[in-house]
Amino acid sequence: QVYVVFSEELKCWCRAVVESVRCQADGYQLSCFLVDYAKYCSVPSDSIRVLQGAFAKIPHRAKKCRLHCTKPLTLHIDYCENTAKIGPAKRWDTAAIQHFRKLLE
Question: Which of 74, 93, 94, 92 is nearest to 84 (CA)?
Fold first, then answer.
C-alpha cells in the first residue's frame, strides 16, 4: 500500500511504500521507499498519512527493478602470489554503483 510521508531531506510530502518498522525509545521509525524519487528514507511514525482519492491512482514514477542475470563482481587481489582476478561478490561495490548511475544519466 502507498502512503504519504514527510521527507526531511526533500522538505516535502512524498508518496512512499513502507519497507519496515523499527521500535525506538521515542516511538516507531519507518523505512520507506519513495516511489516518485527512487530513494529510501527513514521517517518517524507521526510523519505518515494515508493516501486519499485520485492521488492513489497516479502511476509511480520510480519502480524497483533488478538487472536480469547480472551478478556483482569484484577484484580479488592475492598479495602473496602477486595476482589479481575478477570473481563473484556478495554485493555491488560503491565504484560499480556510481559507474552504473553515470551510464544511466
Answer: 74
